[in-house]
Amino acid sequence: MMHILLVLAMGLQSPSAAAIEHIQAGVAADRQGQHAAAIDEFRKAADLAPDFAPAFIDLGVAYMKESRYADAVAPLQKALTLQPGTAEVQEMLGYAWLFQGYASRAIPCFEAAKVKGGLGIAQVETGDLADAIVNLQAALRQHPTDPDLLFYMARAAGLLSRQAGDTLLADDPNSARAHQALAENYWALQRYTDAENQYQAALQISPNLGGLHLALGKLYARNQDLQKAEEEFRAEVKLRPGSAEATYRLGETLLENGKINEAAAELGRANQLRPNMPQTLYALGKAESLAGNDAGAEKAWTQLLTVEKDSDLAAKAHFGLASIYRRQGKAQDAAREMKAFETVNARASQSH
Amino acid sequence: MSRWFFSGFLTAALGVSIFSVTTPKGIDFVHQNSPTRNKYLIETMGGGVALLDYNNDGLLDIFLVNSGYLQPSMSSEDFRRSQPKYWNCLYRQNPDGSFTDVTKAAGLSAVANSDYGMGVAVGDYDNDGYPDIYVTNYGKNILYHNNGDGTFTDVTEKAGVAAGGWSVSAGFFDYDNDGRLDLFVTRYMKWDTKSNKACGGKWNTYCPPGVFPATTNILYHNNGDGTFTDVSQRSGIAAVKGRSLGVGFADYDGDGFTDIFVANDGMREFLFHNNGNGTFTERAQEAGVALDGDGTPYAGMGVDFRDYDNDGRPDILVTNLAKQIYALYHNDGGGSFSYRSLQAGLGTLTAGSSGWGVGLVDFNNDGWKDIFAAQGHVMDNVESIDPALHYKQPPLLAFNHDGRFERADVGTELPVAGRGVAFGDLNNDGKIDVVMSVLGGRPEVFYNHSAGGNWLTLTLIGTRSNRDGIGARVVVNGQMQNVTTAGSYLSASDKRVHFGLGEATHADVDIYWPSGVHQSLKDVRGNQFLDVREPKTP
């Protein structure tokens, strides 16, 4: 319990015996979950020992447990007056303010307590998004799965992104980037035709801007217009031959368009640019298999299975291996891979 | 360069379609599916079409399956089939190419009100030389015996082939080579109007098939006395449950017995290997045709089971939904197939399409089988959910160039909800025409005026085998076809066997009859319809 630790740590002057009795009774009530009774006892102790900081701390903590944040503020402030610089009390006071919506009052408390998480959350509330992200990132390094921290991190990033987008659209609405940003907004809203028009507008302004052809290619691929998708991915790869994603997308689309050998070449290149991406390895194996290069397919899929074992792609790799073994007349190997396919497929389906 | 090649090249270069698309004079059929806000699944699945010469006058006639009346709340399953607008229709072709509705005169107007129509199969089950008609329904199916005088008689009860549940596609074939046509019926799922539900939340869509329990398909053995026996259990057909739609027949492993491919919706496909002893073993997975090339199940709809690359072995083409790719399985021999959709160009052609009835047919007589597919999404509001998808689409025509398919002008850009497709030479000009049924609409007839090559069309007359030689393996100048009227979706095609000969003016013909007889014809003149009678002795 915080109050016991604080009493020991502070080495404060001894209160009266009566005050101590009330504190002990409050602690006992608190342990039994009787917070209202505990509050009553701590308040009596504070009345009897108005210079004894732990009594006020205990009272503030008890109020916090009862979600009586407004009531918690005064005893916590009094405790800080009596014993300035107590980080835990500063933190508690910060949350007392924050939970009531007084984020700006919470900030100095969290700063004093050096509590990055609380500070980041308060900064999100006050709109200080850039600093919030820095502090939340620091807090997430300590508590990477904390749902509050993750939520506020996502909110801060989203708001910052929107702010940047709004600024872009307001300050330079006719720039290629503005059209690109609009396109992405339209895409998120599933207004695909509008998104396409904005990407095209961006391309007219800045034909060599990286990412536009890639986005258009993805849009066409999504709409099952595979020939146009191929054209766009080709354009992106021409602009940015070092882009593993563009190269992978081109290879995958070539594969769907039945240009098997060219697909295998592009997917091989994508695998060199960014080795061991499961999607690339799967598509590469597929291209090699369709091209009749069973050894190449086996190599890619076997490599994939060293990277992923229980995913959809792993299941597909087993299925592909079974197909090439069946074609080669290796019945036992084919049966083994089909069994693995079914096992992994069932596991992957369950995890979905 | 030959005249044929030059003219064919010009046709392609100019973007001129080989088809003129029309509804011929006399055909006033409008398919009635009666869509409701309740999204009864049957609404979106019908109806079939058949091309048959029911009166043996040498001209193909058209039979169209209607569906029925539905209302938002079905207190009883009365589909009002007794009203003329919900009748199935038989249109007799006249010598001038027009058609006459002979439904009532032929005795085909009477359908029970409890039957919501789906598909049709055609076969001469009693070997009397006249094609009989089998109509599938949600409800009870109907077998119409062709009396040979322009009329039909409902013999369902005597024949014992009413089935029940929700039947979809059907086909006649002779699985035991006893000279009599047996009957296979696909069934979609265990479903009725009371158990129906809509899905998709605010979108209110038809539910995916997995929402409803799978069911068994049915195999009827022809007893030869006008009756059939349900052998689904003892043949092994009922050993697996599916959500089956299309069915195709061919002897994929060359053992002399016809096998069955069944397209299932949203689950693995079925390949029933004929063991030659009256039983079947489902071997899709072992053969490599159960799933797509990534090991993923898809929405199998229509099917054709034919040799697309002229290697002498029947391959399998299955249509499916948009965002999937029509599945093409190449028969590698040895009972094994490989997925060839991408190499064949079907990724580009079909990733955005939803396909139903389909055929591998040589439309331009160049010796390579092309693709025609009826198209349109299942969901009538799919554009609201994803603007990239379409409820109505034009059909697909793709020419085959040495095993790779390329889009061709199908002759119409009008999007429709295509469903059934039947193939046959309506005007006997040596070029295969197409009739496509349209969900909730008028059928479309695609008259083929290709400037393509020579051709040969055979009519088989079985003596030891079944009367129409269904199941015979016919090889013409290296091209192979198993004789069948089945395949596609809900539909039945002309029983005649058509081959494009390209520049060849003559052909060598080999017929491997189901009886085991091998018949060889040398140097047969092209550009003719030829009747071939099965020799009485091998």
Indicate the mean pLDDT of chain A: 92
Judged by helices, strands and strand pairing, the structural class of chain A is: mainly alpha
Helix fraction of chain B? under 10%
- Beta-strand percent range of chain A: under 5%
**Which outline of chain B best applies?**
globular
What is the fold named in CATH at topology level of the domain at 1-109 in chain A?
Serine Threonine Protein Phosphatase 5, Tetratricopeptide repeat
- Mean pLDDT across every amino acid position of chain B: 95
Radius of gyration of chain A: 31 Å
Oligomeric state as shown = heterodimer
Question: What kind of sheet is the major sheet of chain B?
Answer: 5 strands, antiparallel
Distance between the termini of chain A: 42 Å
Helix share bin of chain A? over 70%
Order of helices and strands of chain A: HHHHHHHHHHHHHHHHHHHH
CATH architecture name of the domain at 1-109 in chain A:
Alpha Horseshoe
**Overall radius of gyration of chain B:** 21 Å
Q: How many strands of chain A?
A: 0
